[in-house]
Design goal:
Elements lengths: L4 H51 L3 H33 L2 H15 L2 H4 L2 H12 L5 H32 L12 H51 L1 H9 L3 H53 L5 H43 L20 E10 L6 E11 L3 E6 L5 H8 L7 E6 L2 E2 L5 H5 L2 E4 L10 H6 L6 H10 L3 H5 L22 H15 L3 E5 L7 H9 L1 H5 L3 E5 L11 E6 L2 E6 L1 H6 L3 H17 L1
Parallel strand pairs: 3-8, 3-9, 6-7, 7-8
Antiparallel strand pairs: 1-2, 1-4, 4-5, 9-10
Bound molecules: adenosine-5'-diphosphate.
Length: 612
Amino acid sequence: MGKWEILDQFYLIRDYCRAGYRKVVLCAAGISLLDGVRPFITTVLLGYLLDAVYEGAPFGRLLRIALTALGLECLCYCMSSILSEIHNQKHDYIYEQQNGLLNKRLLTMDYKYLEDPNTHTMLHTIRNAGTDHGLIGLVLEDWKDFFQALTAIVTAVVIAFPLFTQVNPLREGFLNSWLASLLLFVVIAGLVYFSFRVDIRYGKRIRRSHQKRAADESLLEYYMGIFESSERQKDLRLYGQRRLVQEQTDAASGRVQKEVDAEAALAAKEEIVRRAATALIGLFVYLFAGLRAYLGLITIGSVVTYAAGIVQMSEAMADLMSVIASIRTHAPYCHDYAKFRKLGSRKEEGKKVPEYGPGSRFHVEFDHVSFHYPGSSEEVIHDLSLSFDTGKKMAIVGKNGSGKTTFIKLLCRLYDVTEGCIRVNGVDIREYDYEAYCDLLAVVFQDFRIFAFEVGENIAGSGEMDEARVREALDKAGLAERAKTMEQGLHTFVGKEYDESGVNFSGGERQKMAIARAIYKDAPFVIMDEPTAALDPVSEYEVYAGFDRMVGKKTALYISHRLASCRFCQDILVFDRGKVIQRGSHDELIEKDGMYRELWNAQAQYYRRIDR
Ligand code: ADP
């Protein structure tokens, strides 16, 4: 564990305190103090009681001592129980809270991190660390045990200190010497250290085994997603891949089981060694204290107090070592959490707000922009420089993989450029407030998602919808007739996952909903990436024909592999291998020898063949 990794755990605890879990943390601290001190109350008062009996004290005094022990023990127990009650009330939901914090981070982090496999490995580690109470439960438990053990050690040292220091100057003998006390101390320290090393060694082995199964667990999670999804099962069934997935799942769960068994065996061995070391310490201390009492150096009551105190201390020390080992074992998870929570929110840095009103124009400029995806060295956009003014229809065409979607993703700030700069109205788009910048854009991606919410909520992007505007958007996207047949109207659920009366809309209907969502947003830029891919020819025609009606006078960037559908755009950009190699209107481009004409002819030929 690095020197500063301990701080990761405090960040984690601090985040939970800020998220309303301060009470849980304070209660945990109180419980550890009380539980640390409690065992010593009986130990000390039992010593007093024995001495009093030995001295022939009256019954009243004996009763007072016994009642004091009982009272104090009861008080500690009650206080600890009250704190536990308060602690557990909120602690039971801590895993949900953990997921809430992680999800919030996932929703706000830079998009590029969502595609980074490291992010998912981190997330998996964090989510799977600990059991019912998640990583935070694990860390709180560690620190609770740490403070409990520390309190017990400090209390035991205070109580048992005289055993080592009481030497009678009038008597001779090795047992009455400082050397004997020192020797006992060294033996205890040696056994505790041995126990600690064992913990560390086993902890490392357990951690290795845990890491080994993390990849398989991740794989199993992926397979579970396949089993539960009717969409994915479709391909699985049709291509006879059920057996393949079943075999892979069985193999992965077999490997996980093997590692879990190995971890349990290691934990059991570790416990045996720890208990043996504690028993040995007890043996030496009782022997030492007993012989000192036999020589008359200490009273019988002190033998019980000191010996029990030291045994408890050695147990507390072993616990402390074990908890330190556990803190070290869990440190990498917390380190992942610390890394995860720091994952980019650079998009929050910009503060400028783009100013616009109805009919506002924007000047967009790509200035020597290059880009490669995170984790890939292959440049997808090469030194791209172009500019355009909004207020017209533009199309982007090109072969698959030529960088069209990436161009849009950069414009939408899903990724930051690797080199160069994108400006809108002369301002680097990174300087704009991210949310305010996003308000400028309404995008329909090829891989759009319509969620299992109500239709209206999907279109409005919120539970609070302007029903008239939602209907208008549905109408413009060509869904007016379909909307009329929905029994629950705009409150009809998409899909049946969460509502039996929900409707399984077709791919084309979902695509129209995605278009309606973009229309409802009423942003000055409308970007459509293959917006008709899932539509039937009639719907496709309707979308083209109604395109002007849909976007009005707004700027529309339109990506399509069907060149015929781009003819209505005044400005066409032809992409090839991350560069714009041609630009102009359809009439201009078709005249020139180049990629556009090549693509046009290829498609025209294809359609002619179909016609025949
Ligand atoms: P187009 O939209 O023109 O079909 P894209 O912009 O989607 O092309 O892709 C351009 C190139 O970038 C392709 O080679 C593709 O494999 C690569 N690419 C796309 N998305 C990613 C990603 N998330 N990570 C790495 N490479 C990607």
